[in-house]
Design brief:
Blueprint: E1 2-6, H1 16-23, E2 28-34, H2 36-41, H3 46-65, E3 70-74, H4 78-92, E4 96-100, H5 105-119, E5 124-128, E6 149-150, E7 166-170, E8 192-196
Parallel strand pairs: 1-2, 1-4, 2-3, 4-5
Antiparallel strand pairs: 6-7, 7-8
Helix pairs in contact: 4-5
Length: 202
């Protein structure tokens, strides 16, 4: 059994996670998690929550036409999804989970915990990049063709960039950077730079 985890994108059209699950040729089911306490901490507007609720009804009907059942589960926070998914996988003998990738801090931390927990049970977790020209999380340096290495206990290049993150790189990495001050400083080739991410643009 394959499981499609619907998150922000509640459409079946142009949904890479749903497509790959169906292409496996095995039975497919779907799940959506409501996380009311997490929503409150993220200041989700009531009108947005209402829109999600109404859209889920349409999604259930669309999936029914494809013979794919949709489970809507409610847990307080992202942390609670880990155990719920583990139980779901055991109950329905799910071998693989497909979803589209979220890039925010809490969401990345959630997926990291889920992937780690499921790996212990043999369930594969696929978080797919949707509509990306370049795969996120790899900031390539045109001079060295290398990757910035983020510092920290949790993040590395596999999990992405976020405001406040510290990056380390040699001086020549910054040779083609556009400086906000408009003045390019003199950079010693032997130096390494420590920079802090202020804004991430997608």
């Amino acid at each position: 059994m394959k499981l499609v985890w619907f998150r922000r994108d509640l459409r079946i059209a142009d949904n890479l996670a749903l497509l790959q699950a169906c292409e496996s040729g095995e039975p497919v089911m779907a799940v959506y998690y409501e996380t009311p306490e997490q929503w409150r901490s993220h200041h989700l507007a009531y009108i947005q929550a209402d829109l999600i609720c109404r859209r889920l009804k349409f999604l259930a009907d669309e999936l029914h036409q494809l013979n794919i059942p949709l489970l809507v589960k409610s847990v307080p926070t992202y942390t609670d999804i880990v155990q719920s998914l583990a139980i779901l996988c055991q109950q329905y003998e799910i071998t693989e989970i497909y979803c589209t990738q979220d890039y925010e801090f809490d969401e990345l931390r959630r997926d990291h915990a889920i992937a780690g927990a499921l790996s212990l049970t043999g369930v594969k977790f696929h978080a797919l990049d949707q509509k990306c020209i370049f795969a996120p999380f790899r900031l390539l340096n045109p001079v060295l063709d290398s990757v910035f290495v983020p510092q920290g206990l949790f993040f590395d290049e596999a999990y992405g960039f976020y405001p406040g993150q510290v990056l380390i790189g040699p001086a020549k990495v910054f040779s083609n950077v556009q400086w906000l001050s408009g003045v390019k400083p003199v950079l010693s080739r032997k130096c390494k730079f420590r920079v802090v991410v202020e804004e991430v643009r997608r």
